[in-house]
Every structure is written in C-alpha cells, then in structure tokens.
Amino acid sequence: MATQERDRPDSRPSLEQILGLIAPGMLDVVVAPRGPGVPVADVVLYDPGEERDDDTWAASGLILLAVGVDVASPEAIDALRGADRAGAAAVVLRRGARGPRTALLEAAASGRTVLLTRRPGQGWTEVLGQLRTALAHSAPTGTTGVEGLRLGDLPGLANTVATLVGGAITIEDPRSRVLAYSRMEHEPDPMRRLTILGQEVPRWRVDELRESGFFQALWSTDGVVRLPADDRYAERLAVAVRHGSEVLGSLWAAADGRPLAEDAAAALHTAARAAVPHLSHHQTWGRAAARAREGAVHALLDGSGRAARVAHEAGVAPGRPYTVMVAEAYDVREPSGVPAAAAEGAAEQRLLDVLALQAAAYRPGCVTARSGRRLYVLLPAGEEETDPARALLAAARSVPRGVVFAGVGPVTADLAELPASREAAELVVRVLGERAARRPAGEVVSAVASFGELVPEVSALRVLDRIAPLWESLSGPVHAMMEHDRAHGSEYGASVAAYLDAFGDTGTAAGRLNVHPNTLRYRLRRARELFGVDLADPTLRFLADIGLRLARRTG
What we know:
Blueprint: H1 2-7, H2 15-21, E1 27-31, E2 42-45, E3 62-70, H3 75-85, E4 90-94, H4 102-110, E5 114-118, H5 124-138, H6 154-165, E6 168-172, E7 178-181, H7 190-198, H8 203-211, H9 214-219, E8 225-227, E9 236-243, E10 246-254, H10 264-302, H11 307-314, E11 322-331, H12 346-362, E12 367-371, E13 374-380, H13 387-397, E14 402-408, H14 418-437, E15 447-450, H15 455-472, H16 477-488, H17 492-501, H18 506-513, H19 517-531, H20 538-553
Parallel strand pairs: 2-3, 3-4, 4-5, 14-15
Antiparallel strand pairs: 1-5, 6-7, 6-10, 8-9, 9-10, 11-13, 11-14, 12-13
C-alpha cells in the first residue's frame, strides 16, 4: 500500500520539500522552469552517455545525479536535455569555479527539468545519501507521533515507538551496537541492562542468537521475529529496518514490567517503516551532524558565537528555560577507592557513553557535549532540577568501578545565562570532588547536588580561587609549616586543619586523624614552637584555615 501511494504523483513529496530536509548549502537551484514544487519519486545516479530505453524513465519524477559532469562543460547541455527527455524532476551537475554558461541556462529555461548544482566540497555519496534520506522522511508512514520527530532524533524515536508498542525499545545497528533506547519506566531485565551499559549486545549473546538462527530469521524477513521469554529474560520482539535491499539496523521491543500487548508486533512492524529515514540519516551524516551539534552546544555553554545561530545548530529552543548539568566520570581502580588521577581513559569514556544515552532518553530536547572526562548536559528545565542528575547517578552506579560527580546549575531565563549556569554546575562538581577527597579510603561514591544546595561551599571555592595566586606570593608561619610537611612528610598541617574543622574539639579532631588526643596536642604545641603557628591568635587561625584549604585542593 505504501509503495502504491508513493507511485501516485499527487502523493509524492515535492522537490522543495526534499531540498528543505537536506543540509543547507549542499545544492543550489539554478533554474526551475516549473517551479520547485515538482513531485519526486526517487534519486538515482545518471550517466548521460549510457545507452538506455528512455521509455522506461518517462514521467519518472527522478532526481538524476550526473556524476562527473561540470556545469560549465560542453557535456552539461547534453546531460540536461537527456534528463528532460526522460521526464526527470531535476538533474544535479557539479558546480565549478566558472559557473553555468548562458547556453545551459537558456536550455534549462526552455525545458521542464529543474537544474541543480552541487557545491564544491560536497561529495556525491553524501548528496545521494541525504536526498534519499529526505525522500524516505517525507513519505507518509501513518505512525502517530513519529512523523513530527526531527530527522535523526533516535532517542525521540525510541521513546515514541515505546509508547506505540507498549514496551521498552532499543534501536541497534546491524552490528548489534546500541544507537538509542527508550526511557526506562521499570527496572530493566539483566539483558537490557547489560546491553545499555555496554552500548552493545554482549558478544556471548550475539553468538547465542546467531547459532540459534535468530539473526538469520531477522535479517531475511520483513516481518517481526519473536524471541520468547525464558527463565532469564523477558519476551523480545525484533524487526529489521530496511531501505530497499539495505539493512540499516533493527528495533527491539522488550516487555517492560508487563507482557507485550497482542498488537505490539503490528505496531513494531509499522514503526520499522517510520524508522527508515532516521536510521538512514544517522548512517549518512548523523555522526558528522552530531559533531557539529556538539560544537554548537560548547559554543552556547562558553558564550562564544551568536546565541541564536548556534542554538539552531545545537537543537535548542531559544525561548525555553534550560538548566546545565555537568557530570564528571572516574574509573575507580585503586584499592584505596580514590578516583584515579591519571588522564581519562577508555573506561571513563564508556561511562560517559552510558550517561549520554541516559540523558538523551530522560527528556526530549536534551543535548549533550563532552570535554575530557566531563559530560555537559543542556536540559529543558523541569519541576525538579536534580531529577535528571539522579537518573544519571542511577545509571553510573550500575557500572562497575564507575564514580560520577554530577552538578546542576541554576535554571536560565535565556541563552545568555547558560555560561553562568555551566560555571555554577562545574563548581558544584568540584565541591563534590573535594568532599570525596576527604572521605576515608574505600568510601568514595557517586554524588549529585544542585547549585542551590551548595551555595556556601561554592562561594568559598570562588573566594579561594581568587586568593590562591596571592597566597603563593606570600610567606609566614603557615607557609613555613606547610613547606616543612612537604619536605619531611610530617603531619603538622593536617593536625592543625583537623583541629580547626572540629572547632577546637581535641577529641573529635584526634578521632578524625585516628591518633590519640595527646598526640594531637603535642603536634599543635610543636607547630607553635617550630613555626609560630599559634592557634590562640585569630589572625593566624584565619591564615592557617585559608592556607590549609588551598593545600587540600592540590592534594
């Protein structure tokens, strides 16, 4: 039925619609003798010198890509006239430095085929992919909710299909790698959890399904394949997503706290057709677009670039309130339980992958960007500003050895406030990290907080940031004590810091240091005798507190 509807000229998308869905600046309309509203049936490669029966192309409505033909070359007119005789909707020629000749423009104006040019720097493969993706996206699917999605919005597609099917959805590529998944309403079964956390179906499970013949059935049919529930995992339904003869990936539905409905298979089958343009878009240029979108998110968070322009590139609505969340990931490997100080590695990046997927599935309109071991999340504001951070925290706790410190900045009224929200969220992450550094060995755990919860500590951090350069240029009793500790491994500074933190309660301070109170009293006396750090003097107490706080920040 869908094919028959596409074959009717009045049901075909127009050339104007198709061009509106591809990357801006990829193609230029040079001459459109019938206007840009001509219907389009397909996109094919075109060799003007090839012998063919033109009757088979009559009234075809094709977009022909004349690969190798420059708009200024003598062959350009022959290519245009051949396309016109074939009833093509449009022909695309390569645009060189000289532009089209007058004779070509006159021939185009007297014909019926739209003349398009491909700009320099754009590859034919990318042009073909984007045009076919746009054509697939413009086809009516009859799937409520899917047609309104932004092209390539795989998390939005997963959430929409989950609603239609009544189960948990995972979108995978042909190699069983996770591209997106629906938000989780219930605790996932072990296989779904492993698949999401690993961003791919476990290899042993892939081998198991291959040996059982499941994948052969999945890739060889257009229908839905059922994987019955067993004593380990919930029931699964899977369907291949195809564009012609090419397999783009698959949709998987799993029972989510309740059995799948009787019509779930039919809904999943319909959704597979609606998923074609989204997966095709991802395959053709989704990765490049994702990199550009991530750059735009960084520009918004840094305050660089024109906000309105980069907001469009980032997929952010200018008039909507947002909050910035920053998540810092660590892989705890040492027996001490302290996050490794080495540069971020594969384990941290895998954890960030999990967090990015979780953030995208949490709420529509969420965009992310990375920098080192940090994930920046630009999230449409909700009622509870820490809810998304706690969702990320739950995901992080499922990753072995994974530790995440997540901070949420204030809600912004407009895009100009995003850099300030980002800065506040980063400061919250730093506070959480410094708290973790003061915890006993083996007790470092993931933590989340909003800016509003930590205003005093964040303010103190800002003050210390300003004071640090000045402190380095000074000298005095506190500096002498700290230098002695660094040179000899003594504990005078730690003893003074514990005493100050305990408001002069020797018993409490000694307990935190795991020493006898008499030992602490001896150290404090020696600090006064050796360096002049007299804690009875308010000024020295003040300087000692500042200096030792700064020392703790640097380890």
